[in-house]
Amino acid sequence: MAAPLSVEVEFGGGAELLFDGVKKHQVTLPGQEEPWDIRNLLVWIKKNLLKERPELFIQGDSVRPGILVLINDADWELLGELDYQLQDQDSILFISTLHGSRIGAGSTW
Amino acid sequence: MCQVGEDYAEPASEEPPPRQPGREQKCVKCKEGLPVVVIRAGDAFCRDCFKAFYIHKFRAVLGKNRLIFPGEKVLLAWSGGPSSSSMVWQVLEGLSRESAKRLRFVPGIVCIDEGAACGLSPEARAKALAEMKLILQTVGFPWHVVALEEVFDLPPSVLRCFAQEPVGTEGAYKAAVDSFLQQQHVLGAEGAGDSPSLAQGEEQLSWPCTQDPQNPQSPDRPPTAAQTEALSRLFDSVKTLTAKEELLQALRTHLILHVARTHGYSKVMTGDSCTRLAIKLMTSLALGRGAFLAWDTGFSDERHGDVVVVRPMREHTLKEVAFYNHLFAVPSVFTPALDTKAPEKASIHRLMEAFMLRLQDQFPSTVSTVYRTSEKLVKAPRDGCAAGPPGPRCLLCMCALDIDTAAPLYLQTVPRLLGLRLPCICPRRSPPPHRPLHPAVLQGWGGCRAAVGGPGPARGAALLSQGGPPSPRHRAAVLRLPCEHEGLALPGPPAALHLGRGPAPQPEGLHRAADPGVPG
Predict the structure, then answer these.
(1) From B272, which residue of chain A is nearest by alpha-carbon distance?
(2) What is the ipTM of this complex?
């Protein structure tokens, strides 16, 4: 049984375009049976935060290739990628390095 | 490893595969720090070692190639994106070090406002520009912001290939560096005791003022609505996203080179990263630009003659760039691209990017392998061209044409595949005296290669060269060649078709082939 967690989810490199242009999201993840890990977080993001075009952010159960994930300013590859167990007050940053995902102010796309 | 007789009944162990580094591991470089980023396959670096590694790579690429002479004016092409922003930041840091390790060239920044091509509203463009100017002022180099609409005002001289500067020998570079250092030393000794020698050196280099040294012809005036409209029309007339991307790149390159020439810059630095170049290499192959890979993806690109394009970020992967920018707060501005939010199969570029990144995910050495292959590409002149006069060049990318003049089969099949409604390839033996400038070069966008099998209606090569007034017969004449040779009736402007004739009568403006049997 996992207690509710408060984490900060941030998007950069143009990924914020898919989230109404909002870069930082302070989210409270509800308590649930399984512990919260990145895999579950992605499912939660897809359901609750992602406004459009999920295929541009998520592929399968992971992020699309080209999107970097930093957990507390460290590469997620060092922390187990999808299996990293979230802790309270963690900061997860998704940076898109994809060409077409650059955002502009008031973009019409 | 698999072995005969090994028992596979047990489930896979819970530990991660051995190649994945864990947080408990130390930095591979200093063996002390806590690693923050994984570079390549399994090398974990701590923050400080990563910074040193990143900066060292940038300096090493510049130092290894020895193309940028001390005191040279170098234009940095900044798009606002992460790679070019990182490059600008590296130059900024490199110029501010103590004199022995300082970068020794004089930088300027050019930024192209492509809002019209991407369909941005004027307010959005203005807002993006304001953000960019803020950063430009922070950086402090002389900067030039140019709207893409100005490509319509470019003089025809941009299409001319200027004589190439002879490449300096190893000895010449060393001599230049030595004399520069001597100068610095002398100035330092002569200078007053209070002022540091660095400031003296800067004055000697005539460091331009950091006020707004914008193009005096167009101060802060935005492009006219008519120009924006014309640019939108141009891009709308191009049917496929692939072709739009290529057109945008060609126009952008011409504009940057023009700015460089106008303001006396002899080098242009672009922020193409390793990942981006690997994708570009594969995309170029798909687009039929195999002959020009060495120029498109190499460190230096001398096709324009007087201005050389260099790519100092070509050894940095996008991951490294993104991490560096985040960890060390490098400012960048995001501007929308032509293919923002486009689906994966919208263009060859997008498809190739998705392919490469997906492969890189599973096989982390993909990008570096492609990059290493691109390093081996050699810029060899075509047979017979080295000694003779320079051959014709594509108007759009300024590469020497890779058309084989003795290949009639190519002439027959390619135009047929392309539907013959468009200007097709016209071979020539040697540069003719008067070659008309094709008026439809921007309308019937093509390139110097045949995009056979491309995603949309493939366009033929709008090959030609600079010169006199456009000839209305030229286009018709070019259409005539292949069908005439075969005696077929093919669609096209009726006035242009001359069916059932023998060897093509030479239309005016085209060079007469020595051998009438060969079309051309």
Answers:
(1) A99
(2) 0.88
